[in-house]
């Protein structure tokens, strides 16, 4: 019995020592690449893209693990809100489609203010004055056309309402995709387009899928001949030989900057900041271009096929009314298409 | 072994079961009556006034009814063919019919979407002949795919019952002058009528529970069904969305309760075939010509329904662009490369594997202890009630259970958002399967065998190893196998409970499809089917070895 008691005591001491050793935080301030830890990222970027970015990030910061959850922007925000309600927000960093989304998170006081050292070269209209979120790339929405199915030239959104394109249209859902929600807000507030545009699309039996990925796949595969989709998916498909082309509509383009922001409740703020710094750094921006997006930093070239921002006619409206109207817009869209 | 006689232990067990299996559902019920102003009917009032809710309820009921009727008709038909006739290739037929038990329903749905792709081969042919295209994202397809997935349920129930219908009854009917067909209807089918009714209700329940098929085929074409509506609400925005999801879940649960009640009524009338031996004699002989005619019809039908969609999906998985491989130039291993190297799919695979193994282990230990107790002490009547409690999370639809888990286990810190909540959900849901399997296994074990062991001087432990386990292994393992496959391919619970670091196979395939990465979802599905076949063959080999060993042992004791 005495032997057994001794063993128990020894084991307990050993256990306590092991636990103590594990929880010691080694100082890594002076050696950034030795920063350890992990962060949880919620993103609406396509899986392949975010994986490439994380791999590149880990070349500079090999000891920080990035666990990510990928879904459409709207579903991600819902998940964050649901987590907030159950007590713990699990995400550290958010990388989702547009500023309007981040504005509503900011007004719910969920974002950490962090002024990255890499802001040089990024136009100040692309990040929040309070530094709660920063744009990471430029994504425009336009029209994708399968040239094997639709032979004529397509130049504008209005053209899509023509009855000859009945059952040939595909678009992402604003209930899932942040970019689509953003577009909905702007287009319905643009004179000459408005809600009539969406009613016209409905008349042509437009397929409302989920995200932009589905739209791109459908048109590339020939399920429909035309779609409203983000530029990078269409341009990448065209560059890799698919019979599609991307059109910047004559009415104008809708631009989102896919901002990145850190959640106030994050317990891994240090590592999160490293991740933000990396994405905004020259290296991170070069990687962004390599993956296939228009980078947001000056001096980094956009990849082939992409127009640079000065050549694009940008459609926009005041951010505040976009943010305030988003839920109502989504409900109206949902009612229209049900 | 635990000393089961102590009264306080019994109370403890009842308490634990209530907390784990019943309280989460009570929390769900309470939440459904909550609103910003406290207790109210607001959620129900709002939902029941919306046409989308009416639509969802009607769709859910219609799908469940029609699909279960089709599944029952199909299942009985095939069961009669296999149990009574002399057609060749029964093993293959059975394999096909039972394949939805191992191939997840979302993979089957995915496979059908490739087969009937808008510009795929079949639709191109139809258009060529001037006919209408078949839209696979439709109400009818949801019904048909769910029916296909539920045929195994009906088949398994009926085949055994059919074999137990006494030959003498048939002979009596035949010798009185009734034709073969009339005998079949008025004797065989009439005798198994309660079984058919039970099977119909089971497949109705399975249809109510099905989430992945309406999600894959119905969300983009805007066909609201209760299971996907609950999911949409739960991932929706706003504080009241959660409560509304809870209210919808209660509506769905009340439908389930009605069916369970009907099931209870039916099972009372069941013809007790326990003491009757199953006979595998051929009862309906086809002539040689008849046999080949049957095959001529059956082979293309089975090929078309079961194999062709999977083949189409596999072919699409090798395509560089979306859709079928039109030419060799489009052939590419890119999708497989992505699936095999992607962090998400790899971690999903290993997560699901671990979940499956751990769930099986936990269920084995607890269910076996419970079953042993139940069988050896039939005087403890409260165990019957406890078993009914444990069955509830399995009877209710998965999406309802997932929601209940969120509401209840978020009270305990560190559970929601971790792998733990998924594990708890799996164990909660599938425990009853192991209990049923272990109970029937132990029932077949005579106490005299154990007592013989004790009187021969063996201690409790070696008794289990030498006597109890070998004799009960087969039925117990059968339940474990079902739990393993179910947890490994599960998607409904994962859709609401998985976090960034606990993705599962089912959720991964679902997310890939939702994100539009169709070819990658096909590639992953194909790999998962391969893996399941691999596990199955390992299982078969182990069984063959153990049977061989036992034979050897018998020959050389």
Description:
- Chain A is of the alpha/beta class.
- Chain A folds into two domains: 158 residues, Periplasmic binding protein-like II (D-Maltodextrin-Binding Protein, domain 2); 141 residues, Periplasmic binding protein-like II (D-Maltodextrin-Binding Protein, domain 2, 3-Layer(aba) Sandwich), CATH 3.40.190.10.
- In chain A, 41% of the residues lie in helices and 16% in strands.
- Chain A contains eleven helices and 13 strands.
- In chain A, β1, α2 and β2 form a beta-alpha-beta unit.
- With 557 residues, chain B is mostly helical.
- Chain B has two domains: 214 residues, MetI-like fold; 225 residues, MetI-like fold (Orthogonal Bundle).
- A two-stranded antiparallel ribbon of chain B has the order 1-2.
- The longest helix of chain B is centred in the C-terminal third of the chain and has 38 residues.
- Chain B is globular.
